[in-house]
Q: What sequence folds into this?
């Protein structure tokens, strides 16, 4: 039965390809039902091209750089048919194998992406914050993936999602959380939600002449991670952070952070954190970023004070979507050996 | 009937997006329950066939064109919930990859073609098929009527959304949309019945919704799958 089915799949695919290749170029180019009604009833001019359309892979079923219309349509149809087959196959596999709950989470996760936008710039992949706030009325979403190797070669993987909203001209609100996969070298693997962070940022001073922009953030850590699994402390932390941002010329920006966190866990020391970051526009849209991050918990043991540096880059794929990646290297034992991070920052306006 | 950006209000976009996302989430749950090793590749081929066939606009009266939708076709093969997932995949790829149908209108397009087209179309098929007491003739009559109706109902849903959005009053949009799509729907009915009858002839086991009159077995909506393969036999030559 299985082999016969395979034969059917091949025949079915073959016929779909033939349709796309040989019939689609000769399809009627008249307006379709809805377009016709829009024309007749005079609302066709209301339709707008979504700005992203310029960036659609094969706009209007054509390959932009192939001049011959028929060839262009036929090839884009072929590519589309093949792509759909694999996408549907992949989703089918996913549905078959994965518990429903996870799929619903995935759908929710990705449906966040399918909204639209206006533009600004992102702080990822830096851990250093910038003094800029999300534009009023705009949502900013960061999807990130981190892979960490600790000094003892334990590994951690963590996808994360944050959502920020520009509440006022100079103030934004954000919430972020993630999921942690801890793979210790010896011990048993653990996984679960990480802590959730709520953040308010306010910028009382804008940048002017020699004066840097100044912003303050308040961060509240809500203990959503499980202590028994070793993923969190199950205590609430509160932190404040002072941020200075200064543009140097047209191509580079410096950020300085100085923050203090009150750790809720008993017997744990409060933490001071400082960092300095620089962004440099390399060519066109490519920007290089780097930072040094240090901490101090005032317990007199210098070995506990982490110090690390990060090198990374970001690239705006469109003016609503920014891709980034970075590699952080721990400079001492208190900081993880390596941390690789990559993510997308999306801007959208409801 | 892919609605572009700008025709619908944000309220309608958001409301249909939520409904469609909810229906898809539930659809995944239903499909998850019944999907086996066979259905996955069949789902892939059905989606690929629907995508390719949707590219082929055929001319209808008065300088208008229409194309195959495939909502009832895939429902009859794989069940309505799998069909909803297939339509969603096709619509999302058409929108993101080919700039066909608006991004902000994606919820409405899934609603019109997936929820109204697949779920609504299949419900009508199911009712009619049972009314005809599951005879072979009844199967094809139910198939033709429900696939025709899936187009007309989807277009009417689009007209209602346009009216609520204030783009075109209902008494203007509804007759116009339903009227044109009543003609396009004939093409849908012809393609659907031809394709399904071809599959039925070669691989009756792939048409889940069809119950052979001689075998008194219960009809099931989902589970066993069917694909677009044989369908295709007619076209290439």
A:
């Amino acid at each position: 039965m299985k082999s016969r089915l395979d034969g059917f799949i091949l025949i079915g695919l073959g016929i779909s390809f033939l349709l796309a290749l040989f019939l689609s170029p000769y399809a009627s180019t008249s307006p379709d039902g809805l377009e016709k009604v829009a024309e007749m009833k005079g609302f066709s001019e209301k339709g707008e091209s979504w700005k992203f359309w310029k960036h659609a892979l094969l706009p209007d079923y054509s390959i932009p750089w192939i001049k011959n219309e028929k060839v262009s349509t036929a090839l884009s149809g072929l590519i589309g048919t093949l792509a759909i087959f694999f996408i549907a196959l992949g989703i089918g596999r996913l549905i078959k194998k994965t518990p429903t709950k996870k799929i619903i989470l995935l759908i929710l996760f990705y449906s966040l992406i399918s909204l639209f936008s206006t533009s600004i710039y992102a702080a990822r992949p830096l851990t250093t914050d910038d003094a800029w706030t999300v534009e009023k009325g705009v949502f900013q979403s960061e999807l990130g993936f981190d892979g960490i190797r600790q000094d003892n070669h334990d590994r951690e993987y963590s996808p994360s999602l944050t959502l920020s909203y520009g509440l006022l001209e100079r103030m934004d609100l954000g919430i972020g959380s993630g999921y942690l996969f801890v793979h210790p070298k010896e011990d048993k693997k653990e996984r679960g939600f990480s802590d959730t962070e709520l953040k308010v940022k306010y910028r009382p001073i804008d940048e002017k002449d020699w004066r840097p922009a100044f912003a303050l953030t308040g961060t509240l850590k809500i203990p959503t991670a499980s202590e028994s699994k070793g993923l969190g402390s199950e205590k609430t932390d509160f932190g404040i952070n002072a941020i200075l941002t200064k543009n140097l010329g047209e191509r580079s920006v410096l950020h300085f952070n100085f923050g203090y966190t009150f750790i809720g866990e008993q017997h744990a020391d409060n933490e001071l954190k400082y960092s300095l970051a620089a962004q440099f526009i390399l060519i066109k849209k490519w920007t290089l970023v780097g930072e040094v991050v240090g901490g101090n918990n005032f317990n007199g043991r210098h070995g506990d004070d982490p110090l690390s540096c990060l090198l990374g880059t970001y690239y705006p794929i469109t003016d609503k979507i920014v891709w980034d990646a970075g590699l952080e290297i721990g400079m001492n034992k208190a900081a993880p050996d390596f941390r690789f991070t990559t993510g997308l920052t999306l801007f959208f306006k409801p | 009937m892919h609605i572009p950006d700008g025709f619908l209000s944000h309220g309608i976009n958001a409301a249909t997006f939520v409904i469609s996302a909810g229906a898809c989430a539930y659809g995944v749950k239903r499909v998850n329950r019944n999907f086996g090793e066979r259905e996955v590749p069949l789902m892939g081929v059905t989606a690929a066939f629907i995508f390719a066939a949707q590219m082929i606009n055929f001319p209808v009266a008065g300088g208008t064109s229409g194309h195959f939708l495939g909502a009832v076709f895939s429902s009859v093969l794989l069940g309505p919930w799998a069909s909803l997932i297939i339509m969603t995949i096709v619509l999302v790829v058409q929108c993101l990859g080919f700039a066909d149908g608006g991004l902000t209108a994606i919820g409405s397009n899934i609603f019109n073609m997936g929820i109204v087209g697949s779920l609504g179309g299949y419900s009508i098929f199911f009712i009619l098929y049972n009314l005809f007491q599951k005879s072979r003739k009844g199967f094809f009559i139910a198939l033709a009527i429900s696939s025709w109706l899936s187009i007309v109902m989807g277009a009417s849903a689009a007209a209602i959304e346009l009216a609520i959005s204030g783009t075109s009053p209902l008494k203007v949009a509804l007759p116009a949309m339903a009227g044109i799509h009543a003609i396009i729907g004939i093409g849908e009915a012809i393609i659907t019945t031809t394709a399904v009858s071809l599959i039925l002839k070669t691989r009756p086991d792939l048409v889940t919704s069809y119950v052979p009159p001689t075998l008194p077995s219960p009809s099931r909506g989902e589970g066993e799958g069917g694909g677009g393969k044989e369908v295709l036999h007619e076209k290439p030559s």
Summary: Residues 142 and 345 of chain A are 4 Å apart (CA to CA). The two ends of chain A are 50 Å apart (CA to CA). Helices of chain A lie at 2-23, 33-40, 69-97, 100-111. Residues 111-122 of chain A have pLDDT under 50 and may be disordered.
